[in-house]
Amino acid sequence: MSIHTADVDDQAGGPVAGARRPSSPHGHERAACWADRLWSAVLAGDTHAAVDVVGDALGAGLDAEAVLLDVIGAVQHRVGVEWAANRMSVAGEHTATAINDRAIAALPAGRPDAPLGRITVACVDQEWHALPARLVAETLRLRGWQVDYLGAQVPTAHLIGHVHRTGPDAVCLSSSLATRLPLAHRAITAVQAAGPPVVTGGLAFGADGRYARLLGADAWAPDARAAADRLAAGPLPRPAPAHQVIDDLPHLGDQEYTMVAGSSARLVRDTFHALQERFPFVRDYTDEQRERTAEDLAHIVDFLTAALYVDAPEIFTGFLAWTADVLSARGVPVQALMPGLDLLEEQLRDFPRARDYLDAGRGALTIRL
Q1: Does the pLDDT value for residue 87 go beyond 50?
Q2: Partner of 1 at 20 to 30 A CA spacing, among 228, 237, 257, 289?
Q3: What is 285-303 written as a DSSP string?
Q4: What pLDDT digit, counting tens, does each position of 289-343 carry?
Q5: Average pLDDT of 92-115?
C-alpha cells in the first residue's frame, strides 16, 4: 500500500479505460479533429498551440459551446483516463489541466443585453476539482445567463453570504469525489434555506444522480449541456421549508457515521501502526512510502465514512475497485489493500454497517485477484 491515489483528475474518477483518442460524449464529428489537435498541444505542454486550436476551431465555424465541451472537455476527460492508466504523470496531468483552463479563457465572453437570469456556480467545500464546474459556468454564459462562478472549495458559510448578497435564481453545486457528500448535503440544505433551488452535478452524486436525490437537491444534471437545458426549461420550484439533515437520512440515527468520522484520524494512525507490527517489511519503507501508505489508508477511511453517510456500500466498493485498477496499472498487486481492510474491521467490530461494507470491499477486490 504505497501507491498514491489522491490526485484524481477533474473529469476522471472511474476505473481505468482503454480508449486512446479524445472523443466528444455527444459524437460531434467536426469536433473530433480539433480535439486531436488540442490533445497534441496538451501532450507537448504548449499553451500557445492550445489557444491557437481554440481560435482556429472557432474560425472554421465550430460554435463556442462545441469547442468548450466537445474539444476542451473531451481532452480533459482523456487526461484523467491517461493518468489512471499510468500513461501520464501527476505533473503532466496538472500541466494539461492548466492548459485546458487557459484554452477555456480564450473563448469569447458573450454579454447579453438581457440575461436570462442569474446563476451561482460553485464547488462544494473541500472539492478542488474545479474544471467541471467551470464548464457548466461557461456553458451557461454562452447561453445568455449572468453567472457568478465561485470556483473550487467554497466554504458553505461564504456561499450563503454570496447568495444573500446576489439573490441568484438557482445555485449549481459541483462535486467530483463522493467523500464530499456530507459537505455537499450541508451546502444543499443551507442554500435551500436561503431561498434558491439547487442543481447538482459531478461524479460524487452518482452516474444516475441517485445521491443528489437522496440529499434533497432540487435537480441533477449529468453534464454541462443537461444543466443548461434544465435551467432553460423553466424556473425550478422553490425548495421545501428548511429541514434537518436527518430528515433526508434517517439511518444516521445509528450514529455509525458520526462515530467513525470522528475517529478517522485515530483509525488511520492505529491501522498504520498495526501494519508495521504485523508486516515487518513495512518498517523498512522509505519516508515517502510511509507517507503514501498513510494517505491511502486515509482515503479508504474517507470513502468508508462517505458510504456510511448515505448508506451506500457501493461508494466504498466502487472506490476500492477503481483503486485496484489504478494499482494494477502501476504494477502493484491488489492484495496490498487487503491487510488494511482486515485491520480496520478489527477496530470497527462494534459498527455493523461498517463491517458489512468492509466485507463487501474485500469481495470487490477478491474478484480482481
Answers
A1: yes
A2: 257
A3: --HHHHHHHHHHHHHHHHH
A4: 888 888 989 999 999 999 999 999 999 999 999 988 888 887 888 888 899 999 9
A5: 90
Q: Give me 356's grid cell.
A: 458489512
Give the C-alpha separation, 117 to 235, whole Å: 10
Q: Considering the entire predicted model, what is its pTM?
A: 0.88
φ, ψ (nearest 5 deg) of residue 150: -95, -10
Between CA 130 and CA 128 the distance in angstroms is: 6
Task: State residue 220 phi and psi, 5-degree precision.
Answer: -135, 145
- Name 130's Cβ contacts closer than 8 Å, sequence gap at least 6: 10, 123, 151, 152
Query: Which stretches of 167-263 are DSSP H helices?
Result: 181-194, 210-214, 224-232, 245-248, 256-262
Q: Which residues contact 110 (CB under 8 A, 6 or more apart)?
A: 141, 142, 144
pLDDT of residue 238: 84
Strands across the sheet with 118-123, in order?
A: 146-151, 118-123, 170-174, 198-201, 219-220
Q: First vs last Cα of the chain: how many Å apart?
A: 15
pLDDT digits (tens, 9 = 90+) for 251-272: 999 999 999 999 999 999 999 9
Taking the C-alpha atoms of residue 15 and residue 319, their distance in angstroms, rounded to an integer, is: 9
Does the pLDDT of residue 125 top 80, yes or no? yes
Contact by Cβ (8 Å): 55, 106: yes
Spatial neighbors of 234 by CB under 8 A, at least 6 apart, are none
Residues sharing a CB contact under 8 Å with residue 82, sequence separation 6 or more, in sequence order: 88, 93
Q: At what angle do helices 131-142 and 90-105 cross, to 10 degrees?
A: 10
Rounded to 5°, angle at Cα 303 from 153 and 88: 70
Residue appearing with cell numbers 463522493: 178
